[in-house]
Design a protein that fits this description.
Layout (H helix, E strand, L loop, with lengths): L3 E6 L4 H12 L4 E7 L4 H11 L3 E4 L2 H13 L6 E4 H10 L5 E4 L7 H9 L4 E3 L2 H17 L4 E3 L2 H9 L8 E8 L17 H4 L9 H9 L1 H14 L6 E5 L5 E7 L4 E5 L5 H9 L29 H12 L2 H18 L7 H11 L9 H31 L1
Parallel strand pairs: 1-2, 1-5, 2-3, 3-4, 5-6, 6-7, 8-9
Antiparallel strand pairs: 8-10, 10-11
Helix pairs in contact: 2-3, 4-5, 5-6, 6-10, 6-13, 10-12, 12-13, 12-14, 13-14, 13-15, 14-15
The structure holds NADP nicotinamide-adenine-dinucleotide phosphate.
The site of NADP nicotinamide-adenine-dinucleotide phosphate (NAP) has 28 residues, from helix 1 and helix 6.
Length: 398
């Protein structure tokens, strides 16, 4: 069996490290071709030393120079060190790359993911923000090239698996499961006082900081609704959410005859990554599921009052284009502000709602237009945030 050469965008992150652990477990199947990291110089250096990729990219020129110097000092040669978005594009499009794992967080991963598709590379997609901002363009490019976009997000991966049982016209709707995050049962009156530490404690998954906060607001599920519409060519009305605190059923597909197919597996992202990297094959793994843990599975209707981000996401999904770009951009800015202690937890949905109110209904035709709309939305979000802080400073003076 020929080795599959993998490019990992976001190699130093949670998904990136899980991908490297899959490569480690299946050395007869996979090799690392290239890596793109952000700012974690120590880990990027360790990964470069361990995996000897042809190219490594860092977020900035300074970090790239530092990495190159450290590699030289360690006597390691033959690794090209690049940086910035051109660097991530190079990592994704190297001729020897057979498969790209797209796992940079946020819209920073968009250009390289799109470039990978244009270069004819099959992509395993964890970077849901790329699909939310530019899914219409990404899926069109992949379809035109007859390339798979294989979801790594566990819910979409589950849907992908369940969809192998029928055809698109046979599907009535899909059900994305949501853990409900840490505040599923918190009294509404306490939402104003949620701290960063509380919001960073996810009940079932260990993930990066932004996605963990997005799970607490359920904006993450909102992004997934939009991602599902684009990946599977479904209208928002055919993408439902059910709250399933055990995170055991990863999602379901409901067929027109009344059958519901569910995918169940361990709560471990290595499984959807392995599925995407080996599709259309399935390979034996040690990621086995303990049937005893099936003793209690519960499902609840999501509470739209508690989680306004879900409503905002459905509204953005209906409008598409600039609205889904703005939803993601405003959230990214608001989550950063929340993590920095600048706004309260409820400031996140409030910021997103204000930004969406001022967003025009328009559909960008190029990635450059997507990025311009993204910048505009971030600018609006920052202005909204400064109004919030002035308002709260004013309130605290009285
Ligand atoms: N973690 C999960 O279980 C999970 C599940 C489903 C989907 N996802 C999705 O997968 C993506 C990654 O999530 P994660 O949890 O792995 O996030 P994470 O742990 O925060 O990792 C993010 C990765 O992106 C890199 N990065 C950030 N900004 C960059 C930039 N400007 N240029 C290049 N690289 C940059 C980071 O590099 P440095 O660390 O070096 O700065 C890191 O490697 C997200 O889109 C998330 O929604 C994650």
């Amino acid at each position: 069996m020929p080795l599959k050469h993998i490019a990992i965008l976001g190699s130093t992150g949670s998904i990136g490290q899980s991908t490297l652990s899959i490569v480690e477990s299946f050395p007869q199947r996979f090799a690392v071709a290239s890596l793109a990291a952000g700012r974690n110089l120590d880990l990027a250096f360790e990964q470069a030393r361990r995996w000897r990729p042809a190219v490594v990219s860092m977020a900035t020129e300074k970090l790239a120079a530092d990495l190159a110097a450290r590699l030289k000092a360690a006597g390691i040669s033959g690794i090209e060190v690049v940086h910035g978005s051109a660097g991530t594009v190079r990592v994704a499009t190297l001729p020897q790359v057979d498969f790209v794992v797209s796992a940079i967080v946020g819209v920073a991963g968009l250009e390289a993911t799109y470039a990978a598709v244009l270069a004819g590379k099959p992509v395993g997609l964890a970077n849901k923000e790329a699909m939310v901002a530019a899914g219409e363009l990404l899926t069109a490019a992949a379809r035109a090239k007859n390339l798979p976009l294989l979801p790594i997000d566990s819910e979409h991966n589950a849907v992908h698996q369940c969809m192998r049982a029928g055809s698109l016209p046979e599907i009535k709707q899909i059900w994305l499961t949501a853990s409900g995050g840490p505040f599923r049962t918190l009294p509404l009156a306490e939402f104003e006082h949620i701290t960063v530490a509380q919001a960073l404690k996810h009940p079932t998954w260990v993930m990066g900081r932004r996605i963990t906060i997005d799970s607490a607001t359920m904006l993450n599920k909102g992004l997934e609704i939009i991602e599902a519409c684009r990946l599977f060519d479904l209208p928002p009305s055919a993408v439902k959410v059910t709250v399933h605190p055990q995170s055991t059923v990863h999602s379901l597909v409901e067929y027109i005859d009344g059958s519901l197919l569910a995918q169940i597996s361990v709560t471990d992202m290595r499984l959807p990554i392995l599925y995407a990297m080996t599709w259309p094959e399935r390979v034996a793994s040690d990621l086995t599921f303990d049937m005893a843990s099936l003793s209690q599975l519960t499902f609840e209707t999501p509470d739209f009052e508690r989680f306004p981000c879900l409503r905002l996401a459905y509204e953005a999904a209906e409008k598409g284009g600039a609205h889904t770009i703005a939803l993601n951009a405003a959230d990214e800015i608001a989550v950063e502000a929340f993590l920095a202690g600048q706004i309260p937890f409820l400031g996140i949905p409030r910021t997103i709602e204000r930004v969406l109110e001022t967003t025009p209904v328009t559909h960008p035709a190029t990635i450059q237009e997507v990025l311009a709309l993204d910048r505009q939305s971030r600018q609006t979000a920052s202005e909204v945030l400064s109004h919030f802080s002035h308002a709260s400073a004013g309130a605290s003076r009285h």
